[in-house]
């Protein structure tokens, strides 16, 4: 599903250049649940931006579901993001003046799906995350955990090949974090490929494989005995 070979990325800072990713080799098979860990400055945000087609590597190759991701103009990049990827962010990134239903339906608008089908599909995903009765509520009427559930429903609604979750529990208390990870595990159990960027060891242990980044290189990539979140809720 994801195949990265010898990926390098540098950023110009004044007259200097900062080498952030230093030859990353990384692949993810369909249906995997993988966490990426690393301290601030390890390169995990840069890697996530490249995986999310929000940034491009300087060299190396990236294939997503067999499609080479290289030299894309913004229109094609946006099209690929819509087609392949669902994003979940620490800060939820919901539109405050729109209802939960409208937030979930929004990506489908950009896919040219009719209003009726958009709303039907959005409602079915709100049901999936346990928020059907909150469909008409705006984000400021929801708790942090509910907002993240709306964000997960929105990410799933466009039927992405891969879910990319960036610190998805970072703004939540421990109990709510584990409830959200239980939902993520259920979605993965159904076969969805999911990448979770996290700095929290207990969250990483709830995935099936942990990739450790340090100073722009992968220092460890290990399969782990998955801890089920439900046991901690």
Structure characterization notes:
It contains 7 helices and 10 strands. The protein has one domain (2-93, 161-232): Rossmann fold. The protein is of the alpha/beta class. The mean pLDDT is 92. The strands form 2 sheets. It has a 6-stranded mixed beta sheet, with helices on both faces. It has a 4-stranded antiparallel beta sheet with strand order 2-1-4-5, with helices on one face.
User: Could you state the CATH homologous superfamily?
Assistant: P-loop containing nucleotide triphosphate hydrolases
How much of the sequence lies in strands comes to: 25-35%
The CATH architecture can be named as 3-Layer(aba) Sandwich
Query: Rough shape?
Result: globular
Q: Kindly report the average pLDDT value.
A: 92
Helix content: 25-40%
Largest sheet: 6 strands, mixed
| Uncertain regions spanning at least 5 consecutive residues | none
Q: How would you classify the helix and strand content by structural class?
A: alpha/beta
Oligomeric state of the chains in view:
single chain
Q: Look at the structure and give the CATH class.
A: Alpha Beta
Terminus-to-terminus distance: 31 Å
> Can you tell me the number of structural domains?
1
CATH fold call? Rossmann fold
Number of DSSP strand runs: 10
What series of H and E elements makes up the topology? EEEHEEHEHHHEHEHEE
Q: What is the topology, as strand order, of the major beta sheet?
A: 6-7-8-3-9-10
